[in-house]
């Protein structure tokens, strides 16, 4: 008792991007309470309780740099979790100088320049190939697709990935991907354009939920009845309320609810997903989404590695993490990524394909990302290159 | 007394613009206030119509205290003010400007009659009834400002330098109008640089000097006064 | 002579300052120094009476230019910073053609639109601007040593000294301009452009001049930022930061040279240090908004009016500072 | 006396309205020339065209034989034609001295680089000397440090002229300089104008104060409805029947 | 193709409707108060959250909730008038800063009350008017269109035909002179703020079920509104409406036939072009900027 390990949480907590940080911090608090209640983290010299120290970086690289400095040099944290994206490059020099271990939710931050940045939660957007692959296998009658995405750092690599996945699956694109401005609020014109070619599949890429909802609603109202595939479908129950159970039936996406029975399987490394989900919804009703669990899942990985290493020092934890099979939330996984990111710091393994059935999201399958990549990696690289998304293309 | 202003003081921030001024306007008379630049004439008028808060003293109109009322309520009592510098509504047409003058009136037909009357007096305004006020010439705007004040059918008309910028023929016309409306029972407070004109029109006159009342008396008396002749009539 | 002493003491305090601060406060100090130049250059533009919403984007022009010059052409960093300023000034001259047909509110929104177009171009042209992700891995200022002090530009203190010298020099130039006949002409253009024109002042040329100079220094501040943080992206120069610059200037007061600087320093310290220290992290926008409202209600002439009261009492009949704005 | 400033067939149309209708007149060097006419006759519009504030719809403004119509206001000013404005238009927030310094813009054109390095000492002191001279000329030197907006009306008018005077103009255009002045102030102002004239400056003046116009002007042009009506010396104009009819009226308040 | 054109036309009409509601409110406030209300987008947001609280939260009937939203946001407008703009009436820059402060507070309150993420509103109606298979107008959107037409016509009548309209216009142009005509400028300021804010509120309330409601939703709305009122000419209601329609048409058609980012660039460039050709906007006049 009395000994604590501090973990840094460096993400936007206010401002327009706060939705990508705040729920994650909420999830981490739950994680910390549960771990501390269960005796904390046991290292070589006894057990420690965990404490999260947060710094609101407002999604600004300069503030992120300041925050990283504060967390490392003043608060003495052992590990820093970030959203990444715009803010990572500001932190990178600090990471290089201090050797601190960082995690990001956006693997496009990875590069050979920094070995201490890992992307262990999700390898956005590569896992999206699993959804397309599953769809092509299970609904072979779907032949044509269109897609749209916001024109930003999340949208573009996602577009490239889906293009590769559709090409691999032999599904024809009827139209160029439609890019819209992130400030868009009225999606009627976007949807009108999308369905003007009468596609079998509409792909929403990695649209944020702020876009997915109105787009789905517009698809419904403008009379689309085909297949929809999307990276996320946060608050899908509300989408059903706005459209209909029929309309949403079969909607494919990649982020399960954590009360899914399939998550109780032995392959899952996330501690008590059902309980976590329940607790989160109790405290923050209506706020569950992908970020809610991802930061916590990184902490599971970190905790395991730290306990294995018997130390919280960044080097030791990093080394322990990389030893042997990685423990990804959805199963064993490999550190991977050289071709896309120039470094094997992304944890890749199986990923769930989720579909909505009778108004409830259900995991339909766990599919292996590395398997797909082994077969179609060249396609992915081709499309990534076309959108300037390869690590060596990013200036 | 129609309007009575007793021991009024007005400040702009720390500046005492007027210190102790009393003015009385008898029913149906023309009272003029003359004085050099910055003497406080405009300030006095603005205090009367409630545009400036008074620091001391009281103002009554028809026996009612009005010194604490905001301008729009003072005006509702029957006082109209032709402000210094015209202050027409730049982006309204001539006719709209005139109609704004009748804003508080409910007697629609009489308003139309008065409008026709203003147009009769100032044919130039009728010619330009759809022109934007801001594109009118300086003198035309002055006519418009006077016309607008008449449209409210006031019982007391406050005029701040109505002759300013007007051609001599028009000045004469204005003088005639003042006399005519006064003959119809309207009382007038006239502030003028053109003291000659003012003293000729007025029944009673006040002379202000740097915020204080320096002199007062029947207009023709002051017209004969040596000091007034030297200082304000240029004689 | 006491004036000389005051300046020396101030200089010493500025040199000693980082050593009394925590690490993160040193970081904030660096950004504060850069923002001081940004807001001081903004004031020069406002001297002519125009309020632009493109200033931060112009700062970005300096940042992008300098970053690209070092990255693509290998230009030596301090030189590229200077060139960043020059390019920002040139862009401003270009923008002045459409923008200075407008005045007042139209100029305000027109400049916003022009800025947004530049930002959209950065986003749209991934080569060379890097699209929405912007540019990263921008060369830092190369380390060097001047004998008794070794500059390690990762360290905020070193960069603070480096940027401090540049910013001080730029402020000195801005100050010289403002106190010169040119500065007087800027004021004249603001208060009565018609009369200025009738006095033979080419109002359009002077507006453009002020815009270009202000933009040049904004560009330098952008370059200083880019080579410290090492990354820039279109979102870093969006309207949110512009709103901050605007409020620094107005809350500080724009009647004096130091008003906007004061506003920048006080509000930044409040927002980045005090409110965070108080643990109000997620409530900061609420409190900050309230502070802004209260300060403008109770100090309508800006924070500078406090200083003015103080200094004017001491020097009752010296040449008065220019009187409060508007 | 030579023809110095000439207005030739000057025309200004606003939509359907012809505010100034092929107006022609000549101003001789070194004189005070009055432009009078009923309200809305087009005097201010004429001024605006001469000074470059409006671009004429037709006709020419000739200065020493050079066509200056259509030039911008500062270009016209640089050729020596400076105007003052109706109402006291000043740099209200600047001091009296600073106002006059702006007036020296043309003779002592500021240079930004010299200003930063400090190589413009001579120009600065030259400009200041000129500004002080102008203020002295109009008896404003004791008010040098006052804020212009705080001056009395009369002083503001004088300052307006001082600003114009500081730029060494050849011609000054004055639009209703006497409005809001009492006879005493008018007399002082007239004295100032005589001094300007004595300094070799040509003055073109629009005014409704007949006392001033008749007392000052060498020549008076009267216009009405945008057109030329009459021209002559004060005596002639005073007795010109068309002018009396259109403008002066019974003249019971005219000096 | 004809279908596509027709559907796009309908989309544009809807967009024009809600943009003009917001823009006209902004114009009105600027015209009468002389301040740029940066918080206008947040008033829109407040209208949307009123629906969240009342309709989604307390099951108040939708149109009752919309009316309540209008009143609530109108009262926010009154609050701003009393607390911010009246004390700062001679200080337009101060008013601008105060409105920015108010914006931050409203956003922060929304976050505190409803979280940082989008919130949900059950659909009001799922009915769709189908002109053909591919030309469909959801009834919920029709509400917005009808509201815009009705409210803006009413406002137009109010401003052009009634005494209050005169009062608003007169006090916008010269408050002191207006007071001298018997117009209470405090009263007109209140009316303008109430109507201006209320229009933003009702636009937010009516569109709330159709968009993603989140604390930062005001941002893009106000940017559009600024563009529109500049193109229309600051202070001109007709201008704001005409420009809303023009902007919505251009933006919608470019989005549908090219892409959304290009639509933004085209929209902004078009605005610059208008301003270059006519620096005071389509219906603006030189002296009002
Ligand atoms: N808004 C103001 N702020 C400060 N002082 C003012 C203001 N208006 C007037 N004053 C001052 O108050 C005093 C009286 O001014 P006022 O305008 O009443 O004079 P006036 O007799 O009407 O002069 P004029 O003949 O020039 O119109 C003057 O000293 C003037 O400088
Ligand atoms: N921009 C404009 N649009 C339409 N009409 C205009 C415009 N400017 C001036 N006018 C008209 O042109 C005529 C001449 O105006 P101007 O201002 O030149 O008259 P003025 O001779 O100076 O009169 P005053 O002695 O009253 O100042 C007037 O009738 C005026 O209404
Ligand atoms: Mg007066
Ligand atoms: Mg005139």
UniProtKB/TrEMBL annotation, chain B:
This protein's UniProt keywords: Amino-acid transport, ATP-binding, Nucleotide-binding, Transport
Task: Name the Gene Ontology molecular function terms of this record.
Answer: ATP binding
Among SUPFAM superfamilies, the record links this protein to: P-loop containing nucleoside triphosphate hydrolases
Q: Where is the ABC transporter domain?
A: 3-235
Task: Tell me where on the tree of life, at the top rank, the source sits.
Answer: Bacteria
Query: InterPro entries, from UniProt?
Result: AAA+_ATPase, ABC_branched_ATPase_LivF/BraG, ABC_transporter-like_ATP-bd, ABC_transporter-like_CS, BCAA_Transport_ATP-bd_LivF, P-loop_NTPase
Q: Which Pfam families match?
A: ABC_tran (PF00005)
PANTHER family cross-referenced by the UniProt entry: HIGH-AFFINITY BRANCHED-CHAIN AMINO ACID TRANSPORT ATP-BINDING PROTEIN LIVF (PTHR43820:SF4)
Q: Which family does it belong to?
A: Belongs to the ABC transporter superfamily.
Q: By what name is this protein known?
A: ABC transporter ATP-binding protein
Please report the organism this UniProt entry assigns to the protein: Leisingera aquaemixtae
UniProtKB/TrEMBL annotation, chain C:
Matches recorded under InterPro entries = ABC_transp_permease, LivM-like
Q: Which UniProt keywords apply?
A: Cell membrane, Membrane, Transmembrane, Transmembrane helix
Its placement in the membrane is given as:
Multi-pass membrane protein
Show the Pfam families listed in the entry.
BPD_transp_2
Which residues are listed as membrane-spanning? 28-45, 52-69, 75-97, 104-122, 158-175, 209-229, 241-274, 286-303
| Keyword Transmembrane attached | yes
Quote the subcellular location field of this record. Answer: Cell membrane
The record's listing under PANTHER family reads:
HIGH-AFFINITY BRANCHED-CHAIN AMINO ACID TRANSPORT PROTEIN BRAE, HIGH-AFFINITY BRANCHED-CHAIN AMINO ACID TRANSPORT SYSTEM PERMEASE
What name is this protein filed under?
A: Branched-chain amino acid ABC transporter permease
The species this protein was found in: Leisingera aquaemixtae
TrEMBL record, chain D:
CDD domains of this UniProt entry? ABC_Mj1267_LivG_branched (cd03219)
Q: Name one Pfam family in it.
A: BCA_ABC_TP_C
Keyword Transport carried by entry: yes
Which keywords does this chain's UniProt record carry? ATP-binding, Nucleotide-binding, Transport
Domain (ABC transporter): give its ranges.
5-250
GO terms for MF: ATP binding
Q: Which SMART domains does the record match to this protein?
A: AAA
Q: Which PROSITE patterns match?
A: ABC_TRANSPORTER_2 (PS50893)
* PANTHER family in alphabetical order: CONSERVED COMPONENT OF ABC TRANSPORTER FOR NATURAL AMINO ACIDS, CONSERVED COMPONENT OF ABC TRANSPORTER FOR NATURAL AMINO ACIDS-RELATED
Quote the protein name from its UniProt record: ABC transporter ATP-binding protein
State the organism of origin: Leisingera aquaemixtae
UniProtKB/TrEMBL annotation, chain E:
Where primarily located? membrane
Report the transmembrane regions from the record. 12-31, 93-120, 140-159, 191-211, 223-250, 257-277
The superkingdom of the source organism is Bacteria
What CDD domains is this protein classified in?
Answer: TM_PBP1_LivH_like (cd06582)
How does the protein's chain sit in the membrane according to the entry? Multi-pass membrane protein
Q: Keyword annotations for this protein?
A: Amino-acid transport, Cell membrane, Membrane, Transmembrane, Transmembrane helix, Transport
Asked if DNA repair is a keyword of the record, the answer is no
Location within or outside the cell? Cell membrane
- State the similarity comment: Belongs to the binding-protein-dependent transport system permease family. LivHM subfamily.
PANTHER family under this entry?
ABC TRANSPORTER PERMEASE PROTEIN (PTHR11795:SF447), BRANCHED-CHAIN AMINO ACID TRANSPORT SYSTEM PERMEASE PROTEIN LIVH (PTHR11795)
Name of the protein in question: Branched-chain amino acid ABC transporter permease
Annotated organism of origin: Leisingera aquaemixtae
């Amino acid at each position: 008792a009395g000994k604590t390990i501090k973990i840094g949480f460096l993400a936007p907590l206010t401002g327009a991007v706060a939705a990508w940080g705040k729920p994650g911090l909420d999830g981490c608090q739950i994680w910390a309470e549960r771990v501390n209640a269960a005796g904390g983290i046991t290292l070589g010299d006894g057990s420690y309780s965990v404490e999260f120290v947060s710094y609101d970086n407002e999604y600004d690289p300069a503030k992120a740099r300041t925050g990283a400095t504060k967390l490392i040099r003043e608060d003495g944290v052992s590990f820093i979790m970030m959203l990444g994206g715009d803010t990572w490059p500001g932190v990178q020099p600090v990471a290089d100088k201090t050797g601190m271990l960082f995690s990001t939710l956006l693997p496009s931050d990875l590069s050979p320049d920094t070995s201490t940045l890992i992307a262990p939660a999700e390898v956005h957007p590569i896992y999206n190939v699993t959804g397309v692959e599953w769809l092509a296998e299970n609904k072979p009658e779907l032949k044509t697709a269109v897609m749209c995405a916001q024109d930003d750092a999340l949208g573009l690599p996602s577009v490239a990935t889906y293009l590769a996945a559709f090409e691999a699956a032999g599904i024809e694109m009827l139209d160029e991907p439609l890019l819209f401005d992130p400030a868009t609020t009225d999606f009627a014109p976007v949807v009108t354009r999308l369905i003007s070619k009468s596609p079998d599949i509409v792909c929403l890429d990695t649209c944020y939920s702020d876009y997915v909802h109105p787009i789905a609603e517009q698809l419904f109202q403008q009379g689309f009845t085909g297949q929809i595939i999307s990276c996320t479908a946060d608050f899908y129950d509300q989408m059903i309320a706005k459209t209909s159970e029929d309309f949403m039936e079969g909607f494919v996406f990649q982020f399960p609810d954590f009360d899914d029975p399939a998550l109780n399987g032995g392959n899952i490394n996330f501690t008590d997903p059902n309980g976590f989900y329940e607790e989160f919804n109790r405290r923050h009703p209506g706020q569950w989404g992908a970020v809610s669990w991802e930061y916590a899942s990184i902490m599971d990985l970190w905790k395991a590695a730290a306990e294995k290493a018997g130390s919280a020092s960044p080097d030791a934890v990093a080394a322990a993490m990389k030893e042997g099979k990685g423990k990804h939330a959805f199963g064993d996984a490999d550190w991977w990524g050289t071709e896309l990111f120039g470094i094997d710091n992304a944890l890749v393994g199986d990923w769930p394909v989720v579909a909505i059935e009778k108004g409830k999201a259900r995991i339909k399958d766990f599919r292996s990302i590395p398997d797909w990549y082994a077969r179609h990696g060249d396609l992915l690289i081709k499309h990534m290159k076309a959108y300037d998304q390869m690590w060596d293309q990013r200036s | 007394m129609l309007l009575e202003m007793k021991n009024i003081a007005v400040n702009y921030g720390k500046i005492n613009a007027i210190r102790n001024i009393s003015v009385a306007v008898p029913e149906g008379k023309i009272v003029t206030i003359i004085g050099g630049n910055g003497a406080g004439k405009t300030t006095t008028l603005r205090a009367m119509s409630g545009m400036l808060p008074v620091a001391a003293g009281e103002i009554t109109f028809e026996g009612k205290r009005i010194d604490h009322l905001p301008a729009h309520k003072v005006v509702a009592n029957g006082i109209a003010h032709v402000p210094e510098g015209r202050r027409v509504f730049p982006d309204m047409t001539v006719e709209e400007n005139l109609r704004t003058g009748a804003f508080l009136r409910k007697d629609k037909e009489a308003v139309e009659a008065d409008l026709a009357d203003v147009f009769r007096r100032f044919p130039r305004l009728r010619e330009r009834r759809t022109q934007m006020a801001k594109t009118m010439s300086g003198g035309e705007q002055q006519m418009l400002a006077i016309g607008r004040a008449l449209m409210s059918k006031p019982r007391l008309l406050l005029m701040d330098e109505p002759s300013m910028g007007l051609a001599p023929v028009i000045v004469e016309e204005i003088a005639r109008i003042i006399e005519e409306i006064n003959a119809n029972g309207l009382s007038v407070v006239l502030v003028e640089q053109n003291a000659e004109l003012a003293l000729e029109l007025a029944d009673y006159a006040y002379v202000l000097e740097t915020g204080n009342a320096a002199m007062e008396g029947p207009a023709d008396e002051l017209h004969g006064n040596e000091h007034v002749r030297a200082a304000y009539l240029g004689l | 002579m006491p004036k000389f002493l005051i300046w020396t003491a101030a200089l010493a305090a500025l040199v000693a300052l980082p050593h009394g601060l925590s690490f993160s406060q040193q970081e904030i100090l660096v950004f504060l120094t850069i923002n001081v130049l940004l807001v001081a250059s903004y004031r020069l533009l406002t001297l002519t009476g125009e309020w632009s919403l493109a200033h931060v984007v112009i700062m970005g022009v300096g940042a992008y230019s300098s970053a690209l010059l070092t990255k693509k052409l290998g230009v030596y960093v301090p030189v590229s910073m200077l060139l960043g300023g020059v390019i920002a000034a040139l862009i401003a001259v270009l923008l002045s053609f459409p923008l200075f047909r407008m005045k007042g509110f139209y100029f305000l929104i027109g400049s916003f639109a022009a800025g947004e177009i530049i930002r959209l171009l950065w986003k749209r042209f991934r080569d060379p601007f890097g699209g929405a992700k912007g540019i990263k891995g921008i060369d830092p200022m190369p380390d060097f040593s001047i004998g008794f002090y070794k500059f390690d530009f990762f360290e905020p203190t070193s960069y603070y000294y480096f940027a401090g010298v540049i910013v001080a020099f730029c402020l000195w130039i801005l100050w010289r301009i403002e106190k010169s006949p040119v500065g007087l002409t800027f004021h004249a253009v603001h208060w009565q452009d018609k009369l200025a024109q009738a006095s033979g002042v080419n109002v359009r040329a002077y507006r453009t001049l002020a815009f270009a100079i202000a933009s040049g220094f904004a560009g330098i501040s952008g370059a200083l930022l880019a080579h410290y943080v090492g990354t820039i992206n279109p979102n870093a120069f969006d309207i949110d930061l512009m709103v901050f610059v605007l409020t620094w200037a107005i809350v500080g007061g724009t009647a004096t040279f130091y008003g906007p600087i004061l506003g920048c320093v006080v509000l930044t310290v409040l927002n980045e240090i005090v409110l965070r220290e108080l643990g109000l992290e997620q409530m900061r926008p609420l409190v900050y908004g309230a502070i802004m409202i209260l300060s403008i209600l109770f100090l309508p002439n800006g924070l500078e009016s406090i200083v003015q009261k103080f200094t004017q009492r001491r020097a009752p009949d010296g040449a008065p500072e220019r009187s409060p704005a508007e | 006396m030579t023809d110095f400033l000439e207005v030739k067939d000057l025309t200004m149309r606003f939509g359907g309205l012809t505010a100034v209708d092929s107006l022609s007149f000549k101003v001789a060097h070194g004189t005070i020339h009055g432009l009078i006419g009923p309200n809305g006759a087009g005097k201010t519009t004429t001024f605006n065209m001469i000074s470059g504030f409006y671009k004429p719809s037709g006709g020419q403004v000739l200065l020493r034989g050079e066509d200056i119509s259509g030039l911008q206001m500062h270009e016209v000013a640089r050729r020596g034609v400076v105007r003052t404005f109706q109402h006291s238009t000043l740099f209200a927030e600047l001091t009296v001295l600073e106002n006059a310094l702006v007036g020296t813009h043309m003779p002592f054109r500021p240079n930004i680089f010299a200003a930063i390095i400090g190589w413009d000492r001579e120009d600065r002191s030259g400009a200041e000397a000129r500004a002080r001279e102008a203020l002295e000329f109009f008896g404003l030197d004791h008010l040098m440090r006052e804020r212009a907006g705080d001056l009395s009306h009369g002083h503001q008018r004088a300052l307006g002229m001082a600003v114009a005077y500081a730029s060494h103009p050849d011609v000054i255009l004055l639009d209703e300089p006497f409005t809001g002045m009492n006879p005493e102030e008018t007399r002082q102002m007239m004295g100032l104008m005589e001094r300007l004239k004595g300094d070799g400056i040509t003055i073109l003046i629009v005014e409704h104060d007949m006392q001033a116009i008749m007392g000052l002007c060498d020549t008076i042009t009267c216009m009405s409805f945008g057109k030329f009506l009459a021209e002559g010396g004060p005596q002639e104009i005073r007795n010109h029947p068309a002018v009396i009819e259109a403008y002066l009226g019974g003249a019971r308040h005219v000096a | 193709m004809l279908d596509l054109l027709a559907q796009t036309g309908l989309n544009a009409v809807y967009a024009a409707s809600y943009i003009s509601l917001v823009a006209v409110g902004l114009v009105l406030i600027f015209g009468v108060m002389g301040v740029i209300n940066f918080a206008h987008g947040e008033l829109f947001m407040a209208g949307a959250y009123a629906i969240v609280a009342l309709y989604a939260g307390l099951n108040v009937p939708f149109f009752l909730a919309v009316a309540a939203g209008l009143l609530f946001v109108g009262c926010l407008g009154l609050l701003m008038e009393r607390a911010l703009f009246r004390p700062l009436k001679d200080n337009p820059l101060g008013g601008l800063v105060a409105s920015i402060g108010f914006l931050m507070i409203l956003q922060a309150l929304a976050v505190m009350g409803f979280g940082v993420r989008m919130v949900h509103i059950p659909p009001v109606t799922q009915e769709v008017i189908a002109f053909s298979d591919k030309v469909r107008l959801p009834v919920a959107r029709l509400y917005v269109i009808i509201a815009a037409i009705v409210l803006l016509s009413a406002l137009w009548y109010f401003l052009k035909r009634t005494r209050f309209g005169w009062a608003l216009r007169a006090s916008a142009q010269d408050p002191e002179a207006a007071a001298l005509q018997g117009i209470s400028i405090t009263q007109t300021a209140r009316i303008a703020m109430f109507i201006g804010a209320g229009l933003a509120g009702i636009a937010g309330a009516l569109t709330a079920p159709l968009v993603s409601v989140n604390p930062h939703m005001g941002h893009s709305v106000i940017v559009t509104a600024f563009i529109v009122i500049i193109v229309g000419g600051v202070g001109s209601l007709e201008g704001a409406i005409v420009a809303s329609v023009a902007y919505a048409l251009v933006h919608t058609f470019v989005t549908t036939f090219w892409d959304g980012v290009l639509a933004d660039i085209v929209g902004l460039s078009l605005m610059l072009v208008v301003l270059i050709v006519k620096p005071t906007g389509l219906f603006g006049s030189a002296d009002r900027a």
